[in-house]
What we know:
The chain has helices at 23-36, 46-64, and strands spanning 6-7, 10-11, 17-18, 21-22. The protein has 66 residues and is of the alpha+beta class. The strands form 2 sheets. A two-stranded antiparallel sheet has the order 1-4. Strands 2-3 form a two-stranded antiparallel ribbon. The protein starts with 5 loop residues before the first strand and ends with a helix.
Amino acid sequence: MKADKNVFPYELGDGTVYTGLTARDYIAIQVVAGLSANVNLISNSYEDMADFAYKQADAMIKRSEK
């Protein structure tokens, strides 16, 4: 999987095409959702959580390319 690959693209009836999220963004969103579910981790700053989420996403994408 490539980091810039789009997930969930869709087209409106008038021909307008939305590319959706990048795979990197989608994975990072899922990581943050998991982190947010753990009340012990919510004390971390939002910036720290975002940094961790994107590092995790990058690692997962890199691993999937093997």
